Amino acid sequence: MNRFINWLIFFVYVAIIYSTLGVVQRIWDSLALKYGGLPTYILYGLFGVFVVGCLSYMFFYLGKRGLKDYSFLAAAVIGYICLFVILKRYASERVHTLEYGLLGYISYRAVRGKNALKSYTFAVLITAIIGNVDELIQFFLPNRYYDPRDAIVNALCGLLGILIVHALKRPKNADFKNY
């Protein structure tokens, strides 16, 4: 039943992504016109809260973690910051980066199995395919266009989301009462 629920969440989330493709840019532009840079600052603030939340979760809930786990989280955070800088002129694309990072996590939850590497790989692959279909749909929308670079960014964001999942994963041999 749990696997069914995870796949249901996955399909609903993908449907939301695809159904909002034609309006996201207009909504963002309206907000930016009315409030200036405030939507961007809110996005940065939410990202900052997310990072602090991840660090708090790692430190307080998971207990002492190794350098490797913090390195995975640091790599993901640096990756997102780089994408935010690269996508500076397309503010709404920054929302897309977080959206596909979350899709990476949701994909992982749906495909999760005994072999973590296979699960991570499959989740990134699914996210990349969904991101490419996203771009193909945009080809047919009047106010959007297909850009293969965006498909690559979508896949990269899925990978960054998986890095965060890996960093926050509770060790298999952990005693549950300590977590």
Biggest sheet layout: none
| Helix-strand makeup class | mainly alpha
Q: How large is the radius of gyration? A: 17 Å
Succession of helices and strands: HHHHHHH
Strand content: under 5%
The chain-level mean pLDDT equals: 86
Shape: globular
**Low-pLDDT runs:** 175-179
Helix percent reads over 70%
Count of extended strands: 0
**Tally of separate domains:** 1
Q: List the total number of helices.
A: 7
Q: What is the rounded distance between the termini?
A: 25 Å
Q: What is the strand and helix layout of this fold?
A:
Blueprint: H1 2-19, H2 24-35, H3 38-61, H4 67-86, H5 91-111, H6 116-139, H7 148-168
Helix pairs in contact: 1-5, 4-7, 5-6, 5-7, 6-7
Describe it for me?
It is a single chain. With 179 residues, the chain is mainly α. Helices cover 78% and strands 0% of the residues. The radius of gyration is 17 Å and the shape is globular.
Features:
mainly alpha; 179 residues; 7 helices
What's the short story on this structure?
The chain has helices at 2-19, 24-35, 38-61, 67-86, 91-111, 116-139, 148-168.
